[in-house]
Write a structure and sequence with these properties.
Blueprint: H1 2-46, H2 52-55, E1 58-65, E2 73-74, H3 76-83, E3 94-105, E4 108-120, E5 126-141, E6 144-154
Parallel strand pairs: 1-6
Antiparallel strand pairs: 1-2, 3-4, 4-5, 5-6
Length: about 160
């Protein structure tokens, strides 16, 4: 009888821990959805050739690193100039945003993720094109999240 009671107690404790862990994970996903949604909305516009999704989230003093740039890009004005030539020229049929993780500390959130871009082929199939690692650092001021730093790098780049 004593063994059965101990076993039941242990089983109940394990089940409770699993349930609490699942609830915590669900709460974290819900909490992180706001930051991820901002980035997704920007990406949704980007794949149609519209950089304004990103530009509208950038803080005036945003910084940016890209493998296409020799140096860090500083400020919204510089980012606007950098993205102007690609307006209307980006064509991506679909993307996958993978492995999202949001880390928060007060009014700062760091979003990291991988992205895979796809193009539809003439036969209707899709082909992955570019694969990226991305980091976006957000700061919340006045109830609004603004991107203060963005960084894109190629996933497993070919080094020469």
């Amino acid at each position: 009888m004593f063994r059965r009671s101990v076993f039941t107690l242990i089983l109940t404790a394990v089940a409770s821990a699993i349930a609490a862990s699942a609830a915590t994970y669900a709460t974290q996903l819900e909490r992180d959805a706001d930051v991820i949604a901002i980035e997704r909305a920007s990406l949704d516009r980007w794949i149609k050739g519209d950089p304004d999704g990103f530009l509208s989230t950038y803080a005036p003093d945003v910084t940016y690193f890209s493998p296409a740039e020799e140096r860090r890009v500083d400020g919204l004005e510089a980012m606007t100039a950098l993205l102007a030539p690609v307006r209307g020229k980006i064509r991506i049929d679909r993307y996958e945003m993978l492995n999202t993780k949001v880390q928060r500390l007060g009014d700062v959130a760091v979003l990291t993720y991988n992205i895979v871009n796809y193009l539809r082929q003439p036969d209707g199939t899709e082909r992955p094109t570019t694969r990226w690692n991305s980091t976006a650092v957000f700061h919340r001021a006045g109830g609004r999240w603004r991107t203060i730093h963005s960084h894109f790098s190629f996933t497993k780049p070919e080094l020469k």
